[in-house]
Amino acid sequence: MVVLRSASVRLPALLALTTLPPVLEAVLATRFGLRSAVGLAPQASAPTPFAIFHDLRWVSVYHDSWPRFAAELIATVVARGVWIAAVVLVAWPSEAARRPAVGRALLTGVTGTAALTVFLLPWAALSVALSATSLSWLFVADVGVVFVLVLVVQRAGLVPDWWRGLPPPAAALWAVVSFLVLTVASVLLSAAPGPLPIVLAAGAGAVNGWLWRRLLAAVLAARIRLVRVPVAPLVAVGLLLGIAPAGFLSRAAVQEAEQPPPPLAAGPGGRPPQALIFVGGYDSVGDGTPTGGTPQTADSIPFEMFSYAGLDPSGRPLPYRARQTQQSLEVSARLLDAQVAELHTRTGKPVALLAESEGTLVARTYLATRPHPAVVAVILLSPVPNAAAATFPPSGAGHGWGLAAGAQLRAILAVARWSSGLPISTDEPLIHSLLGNPQRYRDQMFCPVPGVRMMAFVTLSDALADRPGNPLGVPFVLVVAVHGDDFDRSRVQRELVAFLHGERPRTTGAWLYRLLRAAAVAWQAPPLRLSLIPPGPAGYETPRCHG
């Protein structure tokens, strides 16, 4: 094509190809109420494999049947492959070897996109699990794997033999630069007010054009080593096989969850005026003693462990096992309601809830579906910040949003279950109750509840599972820790006890939390529009936040 030989034509064509997709996505995200996903827009024209991973996350969320999933996947592979071929043709360096023919470029673009779709699709499904459950360790696992893949497949769609040999260092470097640029762009777009994200999306698209030229030049100039070794397929398969040993990490996490909570040290003011219930997290256990096995000292504050098994005839918590934490949130909320009423009657005191991890979802469900006059304070420890952003139907369903993603997640968990021996599943009643009523949980964790004093202790890792737009409506303390590793810290306990004594808490670290979640949204799945999901079971009105 003669027109491609003119730099004055090729540069505007490249900018058009890399600028229009992010602008269009930013416009649509704003128009259809998906403002929290606007940070994804720059990836619509990013270098490979980022643009393909971007496409697969949208497809993984927005399909509701197998035929629709197949049609969307095929259309995405073809459209993205053609787009990559067009970018390669107009961005081809003038000093490089002869530009490929259009037909050859199209074949390379489409086949490279198809291969990357196979490599990346399981990890797009894992990003759906992150959006559904809001568990930060899923973010770390998913982004870590994708980042490793990025380093070895950045030539896909650009040259025919991209899958052979070690990745060129210069190309890998530009892939890392692209990752950083896309993360920063997500922060800027997520924080921008009004229509400004659309303008910033155009700027990000222009930067993508520059990145494409640098990456293509690095790939074409590189001397490939170990050209007979299929490095990219081997790495992709190795990462999938890595799911099996990951099951052993699940067992270690369960062993940690089974440990009783540490004693709560009393401050200078002594014991607070409330009776306390500690609501443990997923896979926790209780031995039926009031403190769940926590060693009490003379200067510690007594608390009663919430039992996921309920109360005995005398009103005392029954022992429970880890499996019982997998019951539906509605069942757990009903049991918490009974335990709150019994403790309030027995002690004559108002009740404060100390809820950790899954326990924060139980507490939220209780506050949203039960009258709670006896509860005067709730403390959220390592809360699950913003669950139910994406969904997938139960096993055996023939339709439902995220159907194929759910099937892939079941396969992944089957391998992890085999290697760990743990009964982990996407079809637990807990998961169904969470995803069956997203209106109750999305953007609700930090909402204030009338008549109840609340505060939250949130870890740095929790920010990676949240999304922009989730209002921080309660006093908020950011803790430099990982999820679930905050309650035994002396600073947290001091501020917690002061709060129970009536001291007004001071929000700290909110700016850093907002920054981290705005950066993380670039690598999450987009949220499913609530208008597409039928309302869940009726209950008391869910508290609403107004940011």
From TrEMBL:
Keywords from UniProt, A to Z, are:
Membrane, Transmembrane, Transmembrane helix
User: Which residue ranges does UniProt annotate as crossing the membrane?
Assistant: 73-93, 105-125, 137-158, 170-192, 198-222, 234-254
Report the InterPro entries cross-referenced here: AB_hydrolase_fold
Q: Which domain of life is it from?
A: Bacteria
Record-given protein name: Alpha/beta hydrolase family protein
